[in-house]
C-alpha cells in the first residue's frame, strides 16, 4: 500500500500530446520531483495579476516551498501536470487535488502570460477533466476571484456552474459534474 513516504508511480496515462483550437501543439505530462526549476521558470512568466488569481493572494513570486508542494505529489489524491511547447518551453501547469474519498477534486491552472489567448488553458482544463473522469472523480471544482473574468468565461464555456463562495463574497466556486447524466 502506498503511504506518503512511498508515492504511487507517476501515471503514464496523464501524458498526452494535445492541440489547441489555435493549432498550438502541447506536450502534457505529470510533474516529476526534478521539475522544481521548470515550474520556477514557468511562474517567472506569469503576471502578478494571474498569480493573484491562481493563489488568491497578493504574492508576486512563487516561493520554493510552494513549488516543492507542487512537484512532491502522491499521484493519487494530488497530481500536477506541466504543459510544454514543441521546443520544450513550459507553457502552463495544472494541479488537481482530490478529497479523501476521491470523489471530488479541485483544479487550478496557470498559463504563461505571453502565451495566453491561444487555447492552452482551455485545452489543459479539458485534459484535466478527462483525467479526473477516468480516475472516477464525480466532479471538479475551482475557487475563483470574481475579477478573474477570463478564467470564469473558460469555465462557463466548459459547462461549469457557479455559486457564491460562503466564506468570501469576492470569490465564486465553479463546479462541473464529471458523471454522465442517466438516460
What does this protein structure show overall?
This protein has 183 residues and is an alpha+beta fold. The chain has a domain of 127 residues: Gcn5-related N-acetyltransferase (GNAT) (Aminopeptidase). It is 26% helix and 28% strand. It is built from five helices and eight strands; from the N terminus they run ββαααβββαβαββ. An eight-stranded mixed sheet has the order 1-2-3-4-5-6-8-7, with helices on both faces.
Describe the structure concisely.
With 183 residues, the chain is an alpha+beta fold. It contains 5 helices and 8 strands; from the N terminus they run ββαααβββαβαββ. The chain has helices spanning 36-43, 48-55, 64-71, 120-134, 149-157, and strands at 16-19, 25-30, 78-84, 90-98, 104-111, 139-145, 161-164, 171-177.
Largest sheet: 8 strands, mixed
The SSE order reads EEHHHEEEHEHEE
From the 3D structure, determine the CATH topology of the domain at 12-138: Aminopeptidase
* Spatial arrangement of strands, main beta sheet: 1-2-3-4-5-6-8-7
The CATH class designation of the domain at 12-138 is Alpha Beta
Cα-atom radius of gyration: 16 Å
CATH-derived architecture of the domain at 12-138: 3-Layer(aba) Sandwich
Shape: globular
Low-confidence stretches: none
Percent in strands: 25-35%
Q: What structural category arises from helix and sheet content?
A: alpha+beta
- Proportion of residues in helical segments: 25-40%
Mean of all residue-level pLDDT scores: 89
- Amino-to-carboxy terminus distance: 38 Å
Amino acid at each position: 500500500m502506498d503511504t506518503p513516504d512511498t508515492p504511487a508511480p507517476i501515471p503514464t496515462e496523464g501524458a498526452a500530446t494535445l492541440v489547441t483550437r489555435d493549432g498550438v501543439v502541447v506536450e502534457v505530462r505529470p510533474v516529476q520531483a526534478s521539475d522544481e526549476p521548470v515550474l520556477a521558470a514557468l511562474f517567472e512568466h506569469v503576471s502578478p495579476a494571474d498569480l493573484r488569481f491562481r493563489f488568491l493572494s497578493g504574492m508576486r513570486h512563487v516561493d520554493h516551498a510552494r513549488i516543492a508542494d507542487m512537484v512532491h505529489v502522491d499521484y493519487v489524491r494530488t497530481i500536477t501536470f506541466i504543459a510544454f511547447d514543441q521546443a520544450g518551453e513550459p507553457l502552463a501547469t495544472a494541479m488537481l487535488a482530490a478529497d479523501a474519498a476521491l470523489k471530488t477534486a479541485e483544479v487550478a491552472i496557470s498559463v504563461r502570460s505571453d502565451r495566453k489567448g491561444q487555447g492552452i488553458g482551455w485545452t489543459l482544463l479539458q485534459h484535466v477533466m478527462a483525467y479526473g473522469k477516468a480516475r472516477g472523480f464525480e466532479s471538479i471544482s475551482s475557487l475563483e476571484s470574481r475579477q478573474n473574468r477570463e478564467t470564469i468565461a473558460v469555465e462557463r464555456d466548459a459547462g461549469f456552474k457557479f455559486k457564491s463562495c460562503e466564506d468570501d463574497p469576492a470569490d465564486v466556486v465553479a463546479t462541473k459534474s464529471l458523471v454522465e447524466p442517466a438516460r
